[in-house]
Amino acid sequence: MARHVDVEDLVERARKGQPRALARLISLVENASPQLRPIMAALNPLAGRARVIGLTGAPGVGKSTSTGALVRAFRDRGMRVGVLAVDPSSPFTGGALLGDRVRMQDHASDSGVFIRSMASRGHLGGLSWAAPQAIRVLDAAGCDVVLVETVGVGQAEVEIASLADSTIVLVSPGMGDSIQAAKAGILEIADVFVVNKADRDGAQQTVRDLRNMIALAGDAGWKPPIVPTVAVKGEGVDDVIRRLDEHHAWMEESGELRRRRLARVRDEVEAIAVTALRERMGDLHGHQRLDVLAAKVLSGDCDPYSAADELIAGLTGD
Length: 318
Known about the structure:
By secondary structure, this protein is of the alpha/beta class. About 50% of the residues lie in helices and about 10% in strands. It has twelve helices and seven strands. It has helices at about 5-15, 20-30, 35-45, 65-75, 95-105, 130-140, 175-190, 205-215, 235-255, 255-280, 290-300, 305-315, and strands spanning about 50-55, 80-85, 115-120, 145-150, 165-170, 190-195, 225-230. Strands 3-2-4-1-5-6-7 form a seven-stranded parallel sheet, with helices on both faces. Helix 5 links the parallel strand 2 (about 80-85) and strand 3 (about 115-120). Helix 1 packs across helix 2, helix 2 runs antiparallel to helix 6 and helix 11 (about 290-300) runs antiparallel to helix 12 (about 305-315). The longest helix has 27 residues, at about 255-280. The two termini are about 35 Å apart.
């Protein structure tokens, strides 16, 4: 039996930056708690201020190290920062939670930073299905910036672009797969390219490869800058922040920021509706209505599309 949640108290404590309250809210989101509706109703009027920045790229490019370096830079500005690090493993292993905490341990005792690992739970696209609402929790709780670090699964990570205001695509020297992934689609979602580990051989060649691909892409209004960094030393991170600021200013001026955020909310509403319909569909397995329609299709008295239309009409009351 679910424990009762005092929504008003929980939201108020989260607004004060209490990490346990934030953790509880995100756990309720991940577990699709029945109390999620009043929680979101309370949080939504408080959200809409945070900048959401996504970090993606192939495994080994230094996403967690770069995330930690960005956290430090934003904290130097006095900004509150939330981090969602999506774990590709089982939600029962806790594997990435330990890894993320080790790589970002410098921020563990900072009350202005909240770091949360989320299990992808089999969701494709490099994210957790609960990520949009977890972002809203951090936004409403007063975070100025929310950094979303994806799992590192290559080309499937393009989904981050639908959640972030600005998307950083990280590559590193000598990783041909990273460039191939960019050619296959990640190029299209990058707002800023970061060539991490730029003190290694081949860094300049990687920058040239990316520059050539960007030139081939034509004029799309915003041309992604390429920033070399050595995140483990903090080198180049200020340049990344500057480029992110420039991109944010461009989005506000061009109307792109509102367009992206509107699309994000539209996708979220659609996903919630589809999930609710899927749950109702699950209740139909073995139900007489479905059995009757299946028998009609099998006998040739009805085609599967007409049967599906009839089933949906029954679900929606049309």
